[in-house]
C-alpha cells in the first residue's frame, strides 16, 4: 500500500457554501498501527482523540493556545458526546477532521465535528459535543469564565462573522 502524503496541519479554514454558519477548521490525521485492531481498522476510541486534537488546533488557529485557558484556571471538559460512525478508516489512510463551534448557551459551548476523506467524498464519522468551563481548583462549573476563555469565544464569533 502506497503511503499518502499528509499535509502539515496549518489550521486551514474552510467555509461550506451551503452552510454559512461558522466556518470549519481543518486538521489532517493519518491512521497509525496503534490506532487499529488486528484487521487494520481504526479502533472506535481513536476517533475521540482525533476530535480533541482538532479542537485544540482550532483554538490555536484563532490565537488562543489551550495552555492559556489552563493557566487562567479553567478546563473545558466534554460533558456530552454524540458520535455517528459512517465508514471505517483503515491503517495508513489520511483523513481531515473538520471542527467548528456552533453555539454558546450559558455555560454550554456546542461543537460540530466531522472526519472525512481529503476530497470530502467519504464521511467516516460525525460528532456533536458540548464543552463546559470548569474551575480547575474546585472542579465546579464556571458561570463566568475567565478573560482568556471569554476572549476565545469572542474571537471565534468574530471569525465566523468575517468569514461568512
Q: What does this entry look like structurally?
A:
- This protein has one domain (21-163): Roll (Thiol Ester Dehydrase, Chain A), CATH 3.10.129.
- It has helices at residues 46-61, 66-71, 147-163; strands spanning 12-14, 24-30, 74-75, 78-85, 94-105, 108-116, 123-131, 134-135.
- Helix content is 24%, strand content 32%.
- The model is unreliable at 8-13 and 15-19 (pLDDT under 50).
- It has 164 residues and is of the alpha+beta class.
- The strands form two sheets. Strands 1-2-5-6-7-4 form a six-stranded antiparallel beta sheet. Strands 3-8 form a two-stranded antiparallel sheet.
- The longest helix has 17 residues, at 147-163.
- The protein is elongated and about 45 Å long.
Separation of termini?
Answer: 40 Å
Low-confidence stretches: 8-13, 15-19
Could you say which structural class the secondary elements and strand pairing correspond to? Answer: alpha+beta
* Shape by Cα distribution: elongated
Q: Describe the oligomeric state of these chains in a short phrase.
A: single chain
CATH-defined superfamily: Hotdog Thioesterase
Whole-number mean pLDDT: 85
Number of domains: 1
Rg over CA atoms: 16 Å
Explain the layout of strands and helices.
Elements: E1 12-14, E2 24-30, H1 46-61, H2 66-71, E3 74-75, E4 78-85, E5 94-105, E6 108-116, E7 123-131, E8 134-135, H3 147-163
Keywords summarizing the entry:
single chain; 164 residues; alpha+beta; Thiol Ester Dehydrase, Chain A; six-stranded antiparallel β-sheet; two-stranded antiparallel sheet; 3 helices; 24% helix; 32% strand
Amino acid at each position: 500500500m502506497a503511503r499518502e502524503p499528509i499535509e502539515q496541519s496549518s489550521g486551514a479554514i474552510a467555509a461550506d457554501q451551503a452552510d454559512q454558519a461558522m466556518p470549519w477548521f481543518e486538521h489532517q490525521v493519518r491512521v497509525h498501527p496503534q490506532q487499529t485492531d488486528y484487521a487494520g481498522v481504526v479502533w472506535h476510541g481513536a476517533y475521540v482523540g482525533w476530535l480533541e486534537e482538532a479542537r485544540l488546533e482550532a483554538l490555536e488557529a484563532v490565537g488562543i493556545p489551550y495552555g492559556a485557558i489552563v493557566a487562567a484556571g479553567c478546563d473545558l471538559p466534554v460533558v456530552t458526546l454524540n458520535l455517528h460512525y459512517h465508514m471505517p478508516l483503515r491503517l495508513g489512510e489520511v483523513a481531515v477532521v473538520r471542527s467548528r463551534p456552533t453555539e454558546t448557551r450559558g455555560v454550554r459551548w456546542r461543537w460540530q465535528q466531522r472526519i472525512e476523506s481529503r476530497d470530502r467524498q467519504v464521511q467516516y464519522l460525525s460528532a456533536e459535543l458540548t464543552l463546559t468551563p470548569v474551575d480547575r481548583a474546585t472542579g465546579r462549573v464556571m458561570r463566568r469564565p475567565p478573560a482568556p476563555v471569554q476572549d476565545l469565544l469572542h474571537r471565534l464569533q468574530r471569525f465566523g462573522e468575517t468569514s461568512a
